[in-house]
Amino acid sequence: IDLNKLSKVAGAIQDLWCQNIAEIPSLWKGIGPSLLLCSNPAIHYAVFDSVKHRTLSKRSNATSLPMPEAFILGLFSKFIATIATYPLIRSKVMLMVTSKKSIIECLCDEYGKAGLRGLYAGCDLQLLHTLLKSALIMMVRERVTKTAHQLVGANTRTQR
After folding, report:
1. What is the spatial distance between Cα 57 and Cα 5, in angstroms, rounded to a whole number?
2. Digit-coded pLDDT (tens) for 52-87
3. Long-range contacts of 27-32 (CB under 8 A, 24+ apart)
4. Would the pLDDT of 158 be above 60?
5. Please, which residues have CB within 8 angstroms of residue 151's CB and are 6 or more apart in sequence?
6. I need a labelling partner for 137 at 20 to 30 A (CA). Which of 13, 64, 70, 93 fits?
7. Residue 25: CB partners within 8 Å, gap ≥ 6?
8. Using CA atoms, how far apart are residues 39 and 32, in angstroms rounded to an integer?
9. Do 33 and 95 touch, CB atoms closer than 8 A?
10. So what's the pLDDT on residue 87?
11. Within 13 Å of residue 36, how many CA atoms lie on the same side as its CB?
12. R_g (Cα) of the chain, nearest Å
């Protein structure tokens, strides 16, 4: 390790800290909504897997969904996840570009101004952006999972 370079980096960090101490908290301004937005993929996969399991349990010997069904289910599950979390997405952006201090303040302000329309302003663009992409990902995921299971199953049978 080059101690000269390390001391220069440490000096630069110290200078930034001393000059901008008041602005340091603003670097983490959107961390609360970002952490809550981790629930979006959790909801997406939970809905997808739950409906998939129910669908496959009604079919004999089925281990994966056909590609068109996986696409539709991926679309549906991402729709549910996005609708459930969109106000958080919006509040994250609002926190970063306004002087508001909390998620609750952003959500209450938007709801007070325009009701549910305010909370979901721009949701149509977000849905357009994410639905097709997520549906394609889930369709490919099903195909890859099915192929992997077939390969592992074939390898297991040949090793016996």
Report:
1. 61
2. 999 999 988 888 899 999 999 999 999 999 999 999
3. 29/95, 29/96, 30/92, 30/95, 30/96, 32/95, 32/102, 32/103
4. no
5. none
6. 93
7. none
8. 12
9. yes
10. 92
11. 17
12. 23
